[in-house]
Design goal:
Low-confidence stretches: none
Mean pLDDT: 82
Number of strands: 0
Largest sheet: none
Radius of gyration: 36 Å
Structural class: mainly alpha
Distance between the termini: 108 Å
């Protein structure tokens, strides 16, 4: 492309046009050797690659964010341990109460 200034000009013109216009031109003039068609294909491929790399970057950023959120979930909330201890104590007191209701110690 660097050796052909006409092609460089065609690519620069194609970069200023929308994807819909470029696709329309590709369908309107079916000649694959046409300089405008080649420029349109080059620009569409550049845009496709740029969009793919942007999507990959967004995906990686989302992955990092979710990984950080999952790391925060690995440590339990501060209320989990005291609640567990209170539940154990309640179960023990309940077991003692049931024991004495089944086997009373008073005559």
């Amino acid at each position: 492309m660097a050796n052909d200034p006409g092609m460089d000009y065609a690519v620069e013109r194609a970069r200023k046009r929308s994807n819909a216009e470029l696709m329309h031109d590709l369908g309107r003039v079916p000649n694959p050797q046409n300089q405008e068609n080649i420029a349109a294909r080059i620009v569409l491929e550049e845009r496709r690659l740029r969009n793919a790399s942007e999507a990959e970057a967004r995906s990686e950023a989302m992955h990092r964010e979710l990984k950080g959120a999952m790391d925060d979930l690995k440590k339990p909330h501060w209320t989990v341990v005291p609640t567990f201890l209170i539940a154990i104590a309640a179960a023990l007191f309940g077991a003692v109460a049931v024991f004495y209701s089944i086997y009373p110690i008073a005559p």
